[in-house]
């Protein structure tokens, strides 16, 4: 095996380890670390959640004395500052490692490059940029949050081949097949919140959990101005997963009280827009939110700059219906030349359905 291949392989192992904490690290990144002597792995670790030790510390603990003279692989630049835990750079230096291979530089301008500099100053050989694209992809929400100080927004919808997300009656279970729905459950497991609007609660009574794809469920968020919501809904069963209802100041006090009695958190914002909702979720340290709403709210979210990535599942079937809803409502665009292009798009089959994903222009 050439050294380059070996480095890439070890970095992939770091990413695998990092993903064990998928959806659990906010506001921190997903990080995995592997320590190698020759070609033998002598220690591994990952960052389980904010407040707990970083991946490097777990890997060093596992390797013990065998970290002396070893090569350390880590998908994100080691930290060089005192946060909730002491800097990993100092731990690596103290352990006497010889070489550190870093997947990507930390995007935070306040720390970016300093961890690498510190290690080099201590005489450790540092190589940067192995499997960088995969490293960037895994932590895209973290990178976005660091740069923009708000969570990364993903809009996901399922539509028929003729572009409908429900029949004209509003019936929508199910547009896609089992595999695509399982894929959505996994997607939820990696997000901190799922957002829908009041209308989707009234029409679909959704559950919005990971259905066992993970032992953790994201926060379920309902945006409703009217608070004209059903007294009984799956989303109000908070022993399954927590639910937050965002509304406007003074809306429907009786409903607010009823929801609070059921254990649903209700927060009144001065104006209920996707932008305000995102600002509120940013305060909760969230990295990523999944918009699983209908077309009206999806259009508002896009217009408000709250959507960065789009995942569209397309089912090979036709429902028709002039009044059947479509995934994105009014955006005020009048010419096809104004259409928002998806960047870095890719297509793949998930069971019988097609998944098209891509990024909106920043
Ligand atoms: N196939 C799919 O992927 C999929 C996914 C989700 C939904 N659906 C379908 O979509 C349909 C519902 O579509 P919808 O567009 O009415 O969805 P929605 O997700 O309920 O969004 C609209 C609702 O959001 C609330 N809202 C709060 N602030 C808003 C703002 N600033 N801008 C816009 N809305 C705001 C309003 O609730 P209040 O009226 O309570 O104030 C509004 O009625 C249903 O038939 C459902 O089956 C399909
Ligand atoms: Zn660290």
Automatic annotation (TrEMBL):
Zn(2+) binds at residues 54, 79, 88. Its cofactor is Zn(2+). Binds 1 zinc ion. Residues 5-127 form the CMP/dCMP-type deaminase domain. Keywords: Hydrolase, Metal-binding, Multifunctional enzyme, NADP, Oxidoreductase, Riboflavin biosynthesis, Zinc. It holds the Pfam family RibD_C. Substrate binds at residues 172, 188, 208, 292. In the N-terminal section; belongs to the cytidine and deoxycytidylate deaminase family. This is Riboflavin biosynthesis protein RibD. It comes from Desertifilum tharense IPPAS B-1220.
């Amino acid at each position: 095996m050439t050294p380059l291949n070996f480095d890439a392989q070890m970095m992939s192992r770091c990413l695998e380890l990092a993903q064990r904490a998928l959806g659990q690290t906010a506001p921190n990144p997903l990080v995995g670390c592997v320590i190698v002597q020759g070609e033998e792995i002598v220690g591994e670790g990952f960052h389980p959640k904010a407040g707990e030790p970083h991946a490097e510390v777990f890997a060093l603990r596992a390797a013990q004395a065998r970290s002396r003279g070893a090569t350390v692989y880590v998908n994100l630049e080691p930290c060089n500052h005192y946060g909730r835990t002491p800097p990993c750079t100092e731990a690596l230096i103290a352990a006497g490692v010889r070489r550190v291979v870093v997947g990507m530089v930390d995007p935070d301008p306040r720390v970016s490059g300093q961890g690498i500099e510190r290690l080099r100053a201590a005489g450790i050989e540092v190589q940067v940029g192995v499997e960088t694209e995969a490293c960037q992809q895994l932590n895209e929400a973290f990178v976005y949050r660091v740069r923009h100080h708000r969570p990364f927004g993903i809009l996901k919808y399922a539509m028929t081949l003729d572009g409908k997300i429900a029949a004209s009656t509003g019936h929508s279970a199910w547009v896609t097949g089992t595999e695509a729905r399982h894929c959505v459950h996994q997607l939820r497991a990696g997000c901190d919140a799922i957002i829908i609007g009041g209308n989707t609660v009234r029409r679909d009574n959704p559950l919005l959990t990971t259905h066992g794809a993970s032992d953790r469920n994201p926060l379920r968020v309902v945006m409703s101005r009217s608070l004209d919501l059903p007294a009984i809904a799956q989303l109000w069963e908070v022993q399954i997963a927590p639910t937050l209802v965002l509304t406007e100041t003074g809306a429907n006090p009786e409903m607010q009280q009823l929801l609070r009695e059921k254990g649903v958190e209700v927060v009144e914002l001065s104006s209920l827009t996707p932008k305000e909702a995102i600002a509120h979720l940013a305060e909760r340290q969230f990295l990523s939110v999944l918009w699983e709403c209908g077309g009206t709210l999806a259009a508002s979210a896009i217009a408000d700059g709250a959507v960065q990535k789009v995942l569209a599942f397309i089912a090979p079937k036709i429902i028709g219906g002039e009044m059947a809803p479509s995934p994105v409502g009014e955006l005020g665009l009048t010419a096809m030349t104004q259409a928002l292009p998806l960047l870095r798009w890719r297509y793949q089959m998930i069971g019988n359905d097609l998944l098209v994903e891509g990024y909106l222009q920043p």
